[in-house]
Amino acid sequence: MIFKSELMRVVSSLIPKFMNTTPLTNIAPEIFRKRLLVEGYFDVEVTEDSLRKYFSRITSELGLRTYGEPIIHRTSGAGKDINEGFDGFVPLVDSGIYIGVWVNPKFLSTIIYTCGEFDAEKAIGLVEEIFRLSDFQSAIF
What count of Cα atoms within 13 Å lies in the side-chain half-sphere of residue 115? Predict the structure, then answer.
């Protein structure tokens, strides 16, 4: 018997992954900003330690410089069961990286926000690999 979620993941894996590249605003064109959003369903156990390793690896492999340690919070039952998970942030010299993790539906949303250039395709591949994403979408803006 195939579960609906498994079927949806199989079907969505057959659809080519397209990345939205439409700018959201045209204000302050003199200030370079690059934002990459990746959202999807993951197949690994996410813990505070695994999020620290995510921040370390993605910043290292993309050549992004941090100036502080990651800050990671767990909701620990403070809200609805479906919203149980983590919020994490690491400050970059040129902005920051955020991740929100919903552990029960095994869904994440991460954004890399910089005032410098980075390889978006490499970043997407790293997020996909680190969290073993099965179904995901990305947008750069």
Answer: 9
CA end-to-end span of the chain:
40
Alpha-carbon gap, residue 130 to 120, rounded angstroms: 15
Dihedral-angle region of residue 138 (phi above 0 means left; psi in -120 to 50 means alpha; beta otherwise): beta
- 111: domain CATH number? 3.60.90.10
Rounded CA-CA distance 16/138 in Å is: 12
Give the structural domain span for 85.
41-140
Q: Is residue 22 very low, low, confident or very high in pLDDT (cuts 50, 70, 90)?
A: low
Query: Would you say residue 21 lies in a domain?
Result: no
CA of 10: how far to CAs of 19, 32, 43, 124, 135, in Å?
A: 19, 38, 14, 20, 9
Using one digit for the tens of pLDDT, what is the confidence trace for 69-107?
Answer: 999 999 988 888 889 999 999 999 999 999 999 999 999
3-state helix, strand, coil in the chain (%, to 5): 30, 30, 40
